[in-house]
């Protein structure tokens, strides 16, 4: 087995606007969740999520939602950090049909591959990371919480 470890880099909670449903398209149901803000905490990075960007989802017929996310962190000391990631949410085998009926799950597990981009000298180390993110969407509060780990 190849030796590796996971290092907790940060956690964050992003708040979202109500979903903008584009509707069924050839590749699946297209849905946009725009960011309205949030908080970043952790041992390596602290700050806020700027109210820009969002989550662009494609819900496939097999119930898998494919994520395409872009947002910006602003650290406590003024650094701007772009966060992008692909990911997926398993909404269940009937997730496509339930979404068409307007039924969002009360919660959903999210798995992501975050990447960070910044030019701030104190955070250049983040440009070199390969990360995994474990998250959960909560419909009641319309937010998503994540823990992000660097693979070492």
Any chance you could write out the topology, listing elements then pairs?
Elements: E1 6-16, E2 20-25, E3 28-41, E4 47-49, E5 54-59, E6 64-75, E7 80-90, H1 95-100, E8 107-112, E9 115-117, E10 131-138, E11 143-151
Antiparallel strand pairs: 1-3, 1-11, 2-3, 3-4, 3-5, 4-6, 5-6, 6-7, 7-8, 7-9, 8-10, 10-11
How would you sum up this structure, described in words?
There is one protein chain. This protein is mainly beta. It has one domain: Porin. The chain has one helix at residues 95-100; strands at 6-16, 20-25, 28-41, 47-49, 54-59, 64-75, 80-90, 107-112, 115-117, 131-138, 143-151. Strand 3 (28-41) and strand 4 (47-49) form a beta hairpin. The longest helix has 6 residues, at 95-100.
Q: Which CATH class is shown? A: Mainly Beta
By CATH, the topology is Porin
Instruction: Categorize the overall geometry.
Output: globular
Largest sheet: 11 strands, antiparallel
Low-confidence stretches: none
Question: How many H/I helical runs?
Answer: 1
Query: How many beta-strand runs?
Result: 11
Q: How far is the first residue's CA from the last residue's CA?
A: 14 Å
Number of domains: 1
Question: Which structural class is indicated by helix and strand composition?
Answer: mainly beta
**Into which percent range does the helicity of residues fall?**
under 10%
- Going by CATH, the architecture would be Beta Barrel
Measured by DSSP, the beta-strand proportion falls in over 45%
Order of helices and strands: EEEEEEEHEEEE
- CA radius of gyration: 16 Å
Q: Mean of residue pLDDT?
A: 96
